[in-house]
Amino acid sequence: MSLTEVHVTSLADYLAACETHKGAPQIFGLFCGGLDAATGESWCPDCVVAQPVINAELPKFAKAGAVLIHCDVGDRTSWKNMSNGYRTHPQLKLSGVPTLLLHGTPKRLVESQCATPSHIELLAEDED
Q: 13, 51, 100, 126: which is deepest, by most CB within 10 A?
């Protein structure tokens, strides 16, 4: 299926992207640790493992016209702060990264679940 990807680097930009794409049949949010300048990869090892699996699997199961908003949660120190906006925002309340969620529903995958193709399929399938 066709999956539009949007990359943002703040909570405000994530919420704005959700509003911009509110007409899409599905909006997925992917929250990952920011890039480590020394390695060019996320500081989060689970994110490094999950990203290629999500990139390969989600387009297979998402509805046509779905949107994936990839949100960088910042550096490790910012993420570990328990008052971080991603952790406290009433619509998100993230507990770990990576988190892959279906916006507007309680459906989400956290940490190692994000690297399991069958979990990604279940996240994307219709509730009907």
A: 100
Is residue 71 within 8 A of residue 29, CB to CB? The reply is: yes
Beta-carbon contacts of 80 under 8 Å, excluding residues fewer than 6 positions away, are none
Model confidence pLDDT, tens digit, residues 27-61: 999 999 999 888 889 999 999 999 999 999 999 99
Both tokens of residue 92? 């998100």
- 49 phi/psi in degrees, rounded to 5: -75, -45
- Reference 102, options 24, 48, 34, 35; nearest CA is 24
What's the DSSP call for residue 24? S
- End-to-end Cα, the chain, rounded Å: 19
pTM, two decimals, is 0.95
Q: Which tokens sit at 25?
A: 């049949």
d(CA 5, CA 18): 12
> Do the beta carbons of residue 54 and residue 30 sit within 8 Å?
yes
Residues with active-site annotation? 44, 47
